[in-house]
Amino acid sequence: MKNKGETCEYCEGRLIQKTATITHRWKGKFVVIEGVPVSVCQLCGERYFDARVMKKIEHIARSRSAPARTLQVPVRSYTHVAT
Question: CA 30 from chain center: how many Å?
Fold first, then answer.
């Protein structure tokens, strides 16, 4: 995780420490992971993940243990949206 006081490499905004809910795709499946530590730019919203956090995300995505809960997500095609 980037240290407090560091700035965004894109806009020079200040980074703050937060937790986020992320989606991760692995082997054609999406996994939602809650409570992920992340540094977020206060200006542009760019997110920075520590290498250890990314390794843990990969581990969680590959896990065969039962999920905390399951969500149903509607999927729609962009080409079928009325304008």
Answer: 12
